Amino acid sequence: MDIISGEALLLLFCFMLSCFLIFTITRSGRNSHGAFVLPPGPPRLPIIGNIHLVGKHPHRSFAALSKTYGPVMSLKLGSLNTVVIASPEAAREVLRTHDQILSGRSPTHAIRSISHQDASLIWLPSSSARWRLFRRLSVTQLLSPQRIEATKALRVNKVKELVSFISESSDREESVDISRVSFITTLNIISNVLFSVDLGSYNAKASINGVQDTVNSVMGAVGNPDAANYFPFLGFLDLQGNRKTMKVCTERLLRVFRGFIDAKIAEKSSQNNPKDVSNNDFVDNLLDFKGDETELNISDIEHLLLDMFTAGTDTSSSTLEWAMAELLRNPKTMVKAQAEIDRVMGQKGIVKESDISELPYLQAVVKETFRLHPPAPLLIPRKAESDVEILGFIVLKNTQVLVNVWAIGRDPRVWENPSQFEPERFLGKEIDVRGRDYELTPFGAGRRICPGLPLAVKTVSLMLASLLYSFDWKLPNGVDSENLDMDETFGITLHKTNPLHAVPVKKH
């Protein structure tokens, strides 16, 4: 028995040593054109590579490793070659200089489990005709300047409903769950643009929590570490449960979408006279679409809605919550933001989107929130379509490329006092979040930039300005601003682990 055990251990050791040598030789290899240099990175263990270094907060783990190995860092995550980008200069190379080569996608196991990579604006290859069609439809029918302007009154009305609900809570001297109410507001804005209905109610707590939990679960399943992303042959085991979560939660959302789609199809078939297209919502326009070559089927529409719905509701609501949390941690900054709003607004009573351009400090608060708390800290994983050189290092074909915008936003070589919430750093400067300044790209840049960027910025700015204009805010009894819990939960987006509660006090 001892001899068998000894032989087994020897064979295991030889196998692990062989794997280590293969990895080492591959890492220091040459191509047919001569020597090339792969990005530096931490030593790798056999089989698992660097998985043990990732942890529950990959953006933080990668940021710490980049301090040692540089802004273009190579990792081996099981069978997945990965390069992590952690400087504005390297980000520019990825998002602009080599945007076309690095615009591929690395769909996660959860995404593949529902075949979303075949019908998604986010996950389809940017070279495909379907991606170009989905992109064109999303921009022209939903996110063009003209369409966003046309839904301006809708956003103002939904924010008025938010203020009205908070006013009632203030009368009762109750604290408000900022995460919940901001989610309901963004949910109703998005659902009206998509379907012309409210999906959320401030007074139906159980129902809205179900929708919010479903969206959060989808975003978590997509972004959470998953053994199947690193070892595809383990996918059938679903060790982390991401595949099951993704299937259950997306089916729940798709049932909602199908209900609206079926109702609209039935309405169209029963109409004798065509509906006034000026009143069309996004689903109406998709159902009416007639393409030259590529036709849309119901499944395409459902998957496109899944992209718009989850990303649109999740990022804006979480950003507002982070902004309010930072202002409550920094009362002097909140007072300064409110003083600007009061000076500009006076007794107007309602903040409109046209007022935001006159509030540079508020805009700086929003930018500072995106710097410290980017909605997608690693953006969406990209994939190299061919070998490409980044700052002197070769990124091999099929390598996953992660741009750590969270690390760039907290880099002391880029930002003074990077861990401090200081909106003043943006005053008098042209830097913006629109994909031209690579030290601040929370929405990405290039052809893969988030098409919902203009709508997200408008929604967050309007909600935040309205909350600060109508109310003073304080933390519940027993909660100290200096020790406010700022723990975060990693997914494809970055959420505050424990929802923020704050007490509103009427100002007007």
UniProtKB/TrEMBL annotation:
**Acetylation: present as a keyword of the record?**
no
Q: Which Pfam families match?
A: p450
GO MF annotations in UniProt: heme binding; iron ion binding; monooxygenase activity; oxidoreductase activity, acting on paired donors, with incorporation or reduction of molecular oxygen
Q: Please give the InterPro entries that the UniProt record associates with this protein.
A: Cyt_P450 (IPR001128), Cyt_P450_CS (IPR017972)
Write down the superkingdom of origin. Answer: Eukaryota
Alphabetically sorted, this entry's keywords are: Heme, Iron, Metal-binding, Monooxygenase, Oxidoreductase
Similarity remark? Belongs to the cytochrome P450 family.
Entry protein name: Cytochrome P450
Which organism encodes this protein?
Answer: Arabidopsis suecica
Source taxonomy: Eukaryota, Viridiplantae, Streptophyta, Embryophyta, Tracheophyta
